[in-house]
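Pipeline run #58 for the internal structure catalog. This entry was flagged by the ingest filter as a single-chain record with no existing model, so it goes straight to prediction. Upstream metadata was stripped on purpose; only the residue string is passed forward. Reviewer on rotation: M.T. Logging verbosity set to normal.
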Amino acid sequence: MMKIVVNDCEYIEFDFKEINYFVGGNSEELRSILQKFYRYFCNNHGQLENVDDIKIIDGDNPVSIKNTNIIFIQGIQSIVDQLLYKKNSLLFNQFNRMSSDFELVRDLDNLNDVQMKLSIDLQEKINTVSKKLFVGLNDFTFDHVVKHNLQLAIKSADNLFALEYSSLDDLMDLYIDFLDEQLSFSDKPSWVVLYNLDAFLSHYSKTKLMSQIHLWIKLYDLKIIYIGGTLENCYINSDEIGNIIVSAEEFHSILPFDNLVKSIKMRYPNEMKMSETKLLSSLIRVIPKMGTSQLDYISGKDLVLLKVLDDMIGFKVSFNQEDFVLSNAEISYLEN
């Protein structure tokens, strides 16, 4: 169960699933949701009772911060940071897992053998000047070697590019590979918070990431929080429609798909003849537009469905008919 404070004293409360969607036209409130998750997982130092504006309960107990892996994908920098060798990044964790590898340990021992000989030779050279000074070289450790000698580049079309000069699609391919590896080795539950992906990811990268996420939630102990303005390229199926919360003037949970279809049919202005597949596609397009008058590039069928949904949950939105009505000449032109 998840409970989030909105408007200072009002709560939205819902059962959290493997993936939950917060979408809509109220970007300020969506940003607030991101900040609440960040405070819960990153700024609370393990003291759950101090977080008053968000409660996340698993069974009877709050979700443990110390025993949960958390990753935020909220911009290009958040992707790059995870691919650098610094504490708690995907790359850092990957190298940590490799540090006890037998072959790497053997190579490090060989390197230290060479360094020992170098120390002896260096001492002999110093002795020709003075025998009072002892010189030595510290043994190499895995962390020291990687930290001070690591060079990173991305291979693309048989060329090597530094991370900062690589395409975002190449970075995301690399990011997905390392995140998959971390999830497969993790002995803790993991949460991934996705924020406003459409603002910085290409169609290719978002599609690949969301496709991979739907595979991961079947394989790993993983929860996904998706926060954004659209649901396009999210691979949402009918079972996930009930996991959507719309942010407009207020928050509202969407009914499970079967119940939603029944409610729509009861309110549709005439017999609704859309197949469930087409209805699902239409819902994915229009649900984020609920409660808003920003209706650019919306078809007539989607507009009717949107009005039904708005009326269903009490969002009062007016439509300017002149924006959507075509003259007979315009209709004839489109038909030909």
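catalog note: The first helix runs from residue 27 to 42.
catalog note: The radius of gyration is 27 Å.
status: ready for reviewer M.T.
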